[in-house]
């Protein structure tokens, strides 16, 4: 049965149902048509028979305003490369297109997504899975099931008052998941609240030692290399961050480095919302994509890809943070580092 035959059959069925019931309103409600449509169908049927009930040819769209096929192909390629760029972040795809020499508006990107049924992140992730399977990379059902069970972090609220790079850094623990053969994986995250420069390192446990290791291995050396002092760290009240100052490894490390320790309000995770929001970004843009493309056998393997993504986040990805103004976090840090040094001298 052709498409036109199905359309005609549905309309004739509406007319027959109304005749049997003796009630036009009830027939229209059951078939999903309006009464206006019913009377229009009946008039057409009475004057021209079933052939008059064919779908009228609609005016052809004005293709001159449509995105060129070659540009549309690049948009689709970028969409599968960055499936988490969506909703209000469709501007990011437009920015990537501009880097490649193509001027496309965010609404134009949205139009391409709608034509290819990619307008939601869920649909884009499914398309990515189909592409990966087609290319011969098959993911296990347990990995997909574990990925889909991941819950979204709560949306962060409010803004954090920060005066310069190093004024305060937010640190938090993010549970990545349970990897077969490895066990639970945790990510220690640090984010400079002014420039939004991020650091992340994976561990198989969450303890004061691992929390201090991130600072000792990556954060403090970075600030020292740029001659910027890290003045304060903001954390939640988890046991990996809080304890007896005389015995707790994390508290002792902060004391040695002369870094003040601020804690969030009880039952108010949004106090450290900058880091919470980063966790949502790394979940959507890295982990949900990486686990669909590759099967990891060790933390070191996953850490290597995470390091590459964090480098891109810091040095290539424009940030819409309060003090970034569309610049990358690293660009913001380097441009405002003199401000931090001036405040250190004044202090």
TrEMBL record:
It comes from the Bacteria. PROSITE patterns: INTEGRASE. Residues 161-337 form the Integrase catalytic domain. Signal peptide: none annotated. This is IS481 family transposase. It comes from Mesorhizobium onobrychidis.
């Amino acid at each position: 049965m052709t498409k036109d035959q199905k359309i005609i059959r549905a309309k004739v069925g509406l007319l027959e149902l109304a005749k049997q019931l003796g009630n036009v309103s009830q027939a229209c409600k059951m078939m999903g048509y309006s009464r206006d449509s019913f009377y229009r169908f009946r008039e057409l049927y009475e004057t021209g028979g079933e052939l008059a009930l064919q779908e009228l040819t609609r005016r052809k769209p004005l293709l001159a305003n449509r995105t060129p096929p070659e540009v549309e192909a690049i948009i689709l390629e970028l969409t599968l490369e960055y499936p988490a760029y969506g909703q209000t972040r469709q501007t990011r795809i437009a920015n990537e297109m501009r880097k490649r020499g193509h001027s496309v508006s965010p609404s134009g990107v949205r139009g391409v997504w709608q034509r290819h049924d990619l307008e939601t992140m869920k649909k884009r992730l499914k398309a990515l899975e189909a592409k990966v399977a087609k290319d011969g990379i098959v993911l296990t059902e347990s990995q997909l099931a574990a990925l889909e069970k991941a819950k979204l972090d709560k949306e962060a609220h409010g803004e954090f008052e920060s005066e310069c790079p190093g004024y305060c850094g937010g640190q938090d623990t993010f549970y990545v998941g349970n990897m077969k053969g490895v066990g639970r994986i945790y990510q220690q995250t640090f984010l400079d609240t002014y420039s939004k420069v991020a650091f992340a390192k994976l561990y198989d446990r969450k303890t004061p030692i691992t929390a201090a290791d991130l600072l000792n291995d990556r954060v403090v050396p970075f600030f020292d290399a740029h001659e910027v002092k890290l003045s304060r760290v903001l954390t939640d009240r988890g046991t990996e961050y809080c304890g007896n100052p005389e015995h707790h490894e994390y508290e002792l490390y902060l004391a040695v480095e002369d870094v003040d320790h601020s804690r969030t309000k009880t039952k108010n995770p949004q106090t450290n919302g900058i880091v919470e929001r980063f966790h949502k970004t790394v979940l959507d843009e890295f982990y949900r994509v990486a686990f669909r493309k590759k099967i990891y056998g060790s933390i070191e393997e996953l850490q290597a890809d995470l390091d590459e993504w964090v480098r891109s986040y810091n040095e290539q990805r424009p940030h819409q943070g309060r003090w970034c103004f569309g610049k990358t976090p690293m660009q913001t840090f380097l441009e405002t580092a003199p401000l931090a040094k001036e405040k250190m001298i004044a202090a």
